[in-house]
Amino acid sequence: MDNEILENNKRYLERKKLYKDFGYDIDKERDSILEKAKPLYGKILEAGTGKGYFSLALAKQGYSFVSFDISQEELHFAELNLAYYGVDKNVCFKVENAEHTSFADESFDVIFSVNTLHHLRNPFQVIDELIRILSQKGKLILGDFTEEGFRIMDKIHTLEGRTHEVRKTTLLDIESYLVKKGFLVKKKESVYQRVLLAVKELM
Rounded to two decimals, what is the model's pTM? Predict the structure, then answer.
């Protein structure tokens, strides 16, 4: 196996262990989000690939989907990570700006965005874009950390000599916005993750 793939997986496993040492089990949390979101159907999109933690969970369950990120570097890490587990062919990775994607209207039936919201400069613009590319009978699944989850992320980033930047808009703000946009929203929560499941209300 390619050395870059092996080295990337080593870093991934080290980071997973670090998270778990603080009580956050990446695999468990991602699988939990997936179970909450099922059934999955049609064309699936992941908005905000990052290093591919959620991409890996989705691909390991056999789903084929499109995943995008604004960072080519992050996408490269994600591709290496999925290649190690032999599921990289399940995913079409793309560089896209979530505020203005190249996708046509109503392109996807299921859209995930996990632990991305708190990074966004213009979250409502991104949500509007996701709504635009979501099919009429589609499902939008948005996940982000709870207060306890954010506390753990802050500890990990501090340990690494970094600051975990968190913007003001919360998932609860997004929930209110989606309701005003005519969505039916269900909220599910674990100790570390909060998840919104939103579908367009049938008129």
Answer: 0.95
